[in-house]
Design a protein that fits this description.
single chain; alpha+beta; 5-stranded antiparallel sheet; 4-stranded antiparallel sheet
Amino acid sequence: MNIMDFNVKKFAADAGTFLSRAVQFTEEKLGQAEKTELDAHLENLLSKAECTKIWTEKIMKQTEVLLQPNPNARIEEFVYEKLDRKAPSRVNNPELLGQYMIDAGTEFGPGTAYGNALIKCGETQKRIGTADRELIQTSALNFLTPLRNFIEGDYKTIAKERKLLQNKRLDLDAAKTRLKKAKAAETRASSEQELRITQSEFDRQAEITRLLLEGISSTHAHHLRCLNDFVEAQMTYYAQCYQYMLDLQKQLGSFPSSYQCNNNQTSVVPVPSASSNVLGSSAMTSSGLVMTSPSNLIDLKEGSGSRKARVLYDYDAANSSELSLLADEVITVFSVVGMDSDWLMGERGNQKGRVPITYLELLN
């Protein structure tokens, strides 16, 4: 027998098997043929596997949306993943906002209250952006990848064996149908032999499928560990963001505590501060922002004496007429006639220079 004859016979046999299964399947749907039911345990395992697959896909896709809300970016990352190439690094939204704030603050002047506040906020936004990037990387590795491996690996194997089991069942039921229709003794003997073979193949495939499906419990246990990793990554991320914002709020504690809303209704927003006598005085009526001068600052401006003040956060002198400051150090401050209302003279040992009042807190 040459190869061509063998291929022709194999094709004919496969075509006959396919036709037999199609006829059996159609007759079952029309209620004209009996169907071998799977045992209850196997049916439950199949249902559990299908349920696991459906919900794993939904959780995986929604997690991807949570970590990367931009659909175009998700598509790009998917393409690079399929091409087995690393996606180019892109600036995320908090990092971009942070850079804009820093650039604006630098242009307005780091020695001004608004410029310095913008720089501080920008630096915090960039830290949040870095934390966000770490959350995405950790979650993708420890949570999304295992879920995707199940969908694209284990479940595909289960689906393949399940389909094979379905085909073996159709072969078995088709053999049963042919045995019922067999009249002649010779035909009946042949049909009985075929039934024994198809029954054996069906039982063997059912056992293989059952063993695979019982692994779903192990899959759930593995996904539970991955879920714990995901929660831990989120907890770390939110804790970092909270700490960053808490630090920023403390740094901005000397800035305005009340503002004028856009709808011309005055709202008072308390800003936690290390002390209630933070130095500061300016009015920004064009933007609706109002700051009132504490009485101790007025006394200091009108008098000729000096006071001790604590530095709230670092300040780099812009020129030789200013004094650089370090957070939490204590310096002596006093007013000079004709000096801008936003500045005082600061003195530390033999060093003397102008210091911005928004960086200081008067001490008793």
